[in-house]
Each structure stands twice: as structure tokens, then as C-alpha cells.
Amino acid sequence: MLAIDRRCILNEISKLLKGLGINMDMIEIKKGGKYKVISASGGDDPMVTEGEYVGYTVLGEEGAVVFRVKNNTKSLLRMIPVSGLYAIEFENEDLLKQKEKTDETGKMDYIK
Q: What is the residue range of 91's domain?
């Protein structure tokens, strides 16, 4: 198995985003956008989720991102724990936005 240094990858992503004028510490993905998410599956191979970003929630004591996925004839919501995320891919840079600075410390938007 290939060992990947997450810190090295994050540094490279940070450089690319700074080149786009985006501070990596202050980015958000847009609700309603279509994304491809690669995450831990519990097995040897990662799980790939393609769907619409719905929002952020808490799953137990951990944060999770929520995506609407289509499975044959059904539409399902998939919660992916943040600690299990490997990558979130998208083609359109408009789906990434600079997070607005607010004075509200610790406030989060949850799925209602």
C-alpha cells in the first residue's frame, strides 16, 4: 500500500487555492452543488459517492457531511463522517466559495 503524507497533500492543495485567491482555512462547498466524494468504506477500497451536497450535521459526537444520492429509483441521504473523508472532487470552481467572516463563534448550520 502506498503511504500518503496528508500534510504534504494539504500543503499542495493550499498552494493551489491561494493561487485562486482562496484561503484554505475559510472555504465552503455550496449546498445544491454536485460533488464526487471519496471516503473510508470500512473495507480495503474507498467508497465513492456522487451526489448533491445537502449540508452538515452531527452524527453521534462527530461532524458529517450529507449528500443526496440516487440509487436506481430511490433518492437517499448519505451521511459521511468528516474523519472518513479522503477527497471531495468537483469540476466547476463556482462550487467552491470563500467563507464569510462572522462574529458568531462556534455557530453551525445544521440540516433541518
A: 28-98
